[in-house]
Design brief:
- The complex is a heterodimer.
- By secondary structure, chain A is of the alpha/beta class.
- The N and C termini of chain A lie far apart (about 60 Å).
- In chain B, about 25% of the residues lie in helices and about 25% in strands.
- In chain B, helix 5 links the parallel strand 12 and strand 13.
- Chain B has a 7-stranded parallel sheet, with helices on both faces. A 5-stranded parallel sheet of chain B has the order 13-12-14-15-16. A 3-stranded antiparallel sheet of chain B has the order 6-7-8, with no helix packed on it.
- Chain B folds into 2 domains: about 180 residues, Rossmann fold, CATH 3.40.50.620; about 120 residues, Rossmann fold, CATH 3.40.50.1220.
- In chain B, helix 3 packs across helix 4 and helix 5 packs parallel to helix 8.
- The N and C termini of chain B lie far apart (about 60 Å).
- Chain B has 8 helices and 16 strands.
- Classes of the chains: A alpha/beta, B alpha/beta.
- At the A-B interface, helix 3, helix 4, strand 7, strand 8 and strand 9 of A face helix 3, helix 4, strand 5, strand 7 and strand 8 of B.
- Strand 12 of chain A pairs antiparallel with strand 8 of chain B, so a sheet runs across the interface.
Amino acid sequence: MNVIVCVKQIPDPALPGELDPSTNTLKRDGKLILDESDSYGVEMALQLVTAAGGGEVSLVSMAPNDETSGLRTALAMGAAKAVLVSDASLAGADALTTAKVLAGAVGKSGDYDLIIAGTESSDGYTGTVPEQLAEVLGLPSITFAKTVQITDGTLKVDRQTEEGYDEVTCSLPAVVSVTAGVVEPRYPSFKGIMAAKSKPVDTVTTADLGVEAVSWAQQIVSVEDAPAREAGEIIEDDGESFNKIVEFLDNLKVI
Amino acid sequence: MGIDNIWVFAQETEGEPVSPTSGTLELLTKARSLAANVSAFVAGDGGAVAAVLADHGAAKVYATGDLAGALPGVAVASAMQAVINGGETPDLIMFPQSYEGRDVMSRLSVKLDRTVLTNSTSITVDGDSVTVQTPIFGGSKLVNSTFTGEKPFLAAFRPKSFVAEGGAGAAGEVVSAPVGDLGTTGGATVTAVHVEEHTGPKLDEAAVVVSGGRGLGEAEKFEMIESLAKALKGAPGASRAIVDAGWVPYSYQVGQTGKVVKPTVYIAAGISGATQHMVGMKGSKNIIAINKDKEAPIFGIADLGIVGDVHKVLPQLLEALKSRG
């Protein structure tokens, strides 16, 4: 049972985001970390491989530079190896280009039974890459999985819907996108962190993958400030502040 | 030339009675203000929803017929591609920013080799040029992006970006658009559908929304949120943090990856105001925030902010509301 996990390295979301003034795209030249929403996929993959009694977890990732610190986190959790497509021409790439590039990276990763991705990245959040990747590879897909099981070579997923969930079965190989909370991601152990330093990361360019025409049919024309919402009255609770809320609701005639 | 022909991916609600989602009707209303020819594209036979879609502007309702358990993403995209290959020329295809909307759009994007722009909240058309606006950084900045390639353009819009209005009086002619052979991509089958029961107003339609977050401390305390919502005839909501922690189901989640709400009053209790959350509620007409930490970002957008302990303020508030009867 081999599982490939798509992971993204992103600027630390705890720091304020910044746009590159020349391109209006997100600045990614600082340190990049593993997108937390991808840690669920890595954990799910590790659990599926353990349950199957053998196989390995491989990572595929794309970056405009050769940053690997986020990949090392996923390797420290237990993934065996990674393919990183690193190419300056990918800066600002759209989701369709990303899916084509990741499909190329999947082709470099050996045999697989399943590909797992997060539902959307925490920085760009276009939210289409997993399903686009499935279409590029000609595979079935189940998006927004909140549970994932493999029994006798069949994938079984509870898929989140707006009004509940669907039970879905699928043949393998397939692409699954997992929601946050599907599993509790493990913390890398010290041993894992040390081992990750020597795990193979195959850094390739788009040319190495034979992915051509790296361009995309969208352009940012401008960025503006949203109309600010003014803060109102802020008070410290003195044991009576609930009256303020009652008064506020009363004025709006909702009570 | 120009944007004359717009398709809208029309999504149906899962429970009975079947109706188009509110996001679908919002997009149809917007589409008919932009173009003379508007069509809806629906998974299923379309019969139950064609009249409402027509009332919101759909002259044609392309219907795939029963999907026989296939997930809509790949099936509807395949049907759309077949209609386009048959000679139809939509200039723009609009999708609700929903699970199914995202899936159909993603599959079609690859089939037609077109880029996608998602999470948008407005659209402007100028001749052949289509520009969409997308909030970033928790809604503090707005990015205007334009399509530079071949039509059709593919764009997804967040719920409540536009206001749905009926009365369009369009024909709503149902046109069969069958799904072709999906080959290896059609391997997924829905075997059971579960719709969560809920009472009271729906989260994205309620006039009052009361949401709880980590500040509640433990899952059991969410009961205070439920009680307050009930007392105000509103709906309970939640931050992503407590949904991820398993305290409440995902259907409660307000935010970027959950519901977008714009109630008359939004009460945020024990929610600090992560970007992810604020995107889903900052359109509320009035915001009340209760949080221990006076530096919490939520206070930056609150009309009334109480720096205090939700475990003290909420029970007092409930008691006061109860005594008013």
